[in-house]
Design a protein that fits this description.
It is built from five helices and seven strands; from the N terminus they run E-E-H-E-E-H-E-H-E-H-E-H. By secondary structure, it is α/β, with parallel strands linked by helices. The chain starts with 7 loop residues before the first strand and ends with a helix.
Length: 197
């Protein structure tokens, strides 16, 4: 059972083989740098600063595990542009691929995409790679408050087509208004519960 009122960060590591001691199912959060992963996590947690946010892309440089009671939410480094040394950025890809591709605890993935724009080449590659690995994936279109309500259905349909997904695998989200929080939370609870069977 998720207990997000009492969330704790229990591990921050750059070693994809290092895991928290309690063997609980995990849900990974992936997305382009500055797409709003930390803001989404803080909204889910109902905490303002548990997951570090920054106007500078590349704030998350490790695998950050948050204990949510019935499992772990794992914040992965953002892909794409990040204001960090090349040597650091080049280590992220293999670290993320090892974590996502060889992890029996992984119950599913939340892939964040900026809902104001078409999915980037890297967004498309990430979603295709997750599908190829057979990982249950929920795509969250962020920054919903910056997209007019009359435009959202069309934007979602366009994004779904470009990503090769059914719109049912997608949800709008706004960190500003908290729109989408409950739908995302419900989907994540189901993923964790199904992995326990």
């Amino acid at each position: 059972m998720l207990e997000v009122h009492d969330v704790r960060r229990v591990l921050s590591t750059t070693d994809p083989d290092e895991r928290p001691d309690r063997p609980l199912p995990e849900i990974a959060f992936v997305g382009r740098s500055n797409v709003g992963k930390s803001s989404l996590l803080n909204t889910l947690f109902r905490r303002k600063r548990l997951a570090g946010t920054s106007k500078t892309p590349g704030k998350t440089r490790s695998l950050d595990y948050y204990d949510v009671g019935g499992g772990y939410f794992v914040d992965l480094p953002g892909y794409g542009y990040a204001a960090v040394p090349d040597s650091v950025r080049e280590r992220w890809g293999p670290m993320m691929e090892r974590y996502l591709g060889d992890n029996p605890r992984l119950a599913g993935v939340v892939s964040l995409v900026d809902g104001r724009h078409d999915p980037t080449r890297l967004d498309r590659r990430m979603v295709a790679w997750l599908a190829g690995e057979g990982l249950p994936t929920l795509v969250v279109l962020t920054k919903a408050d910056k997209v007019g309500r009359g435009r959202r259905r069309g934007r979602m349909a366009e994004s779904a087509e470009q990503l090769g997904l059914d719109p049912d695998q997608m949800v709008w989200f706004s960190a500003k208004t908290r729109e989408g929080r409950d739908a995302i939370f419900t989907a994540l609870r189901r993923l964790l519960e199904s992995s326990e069977r």
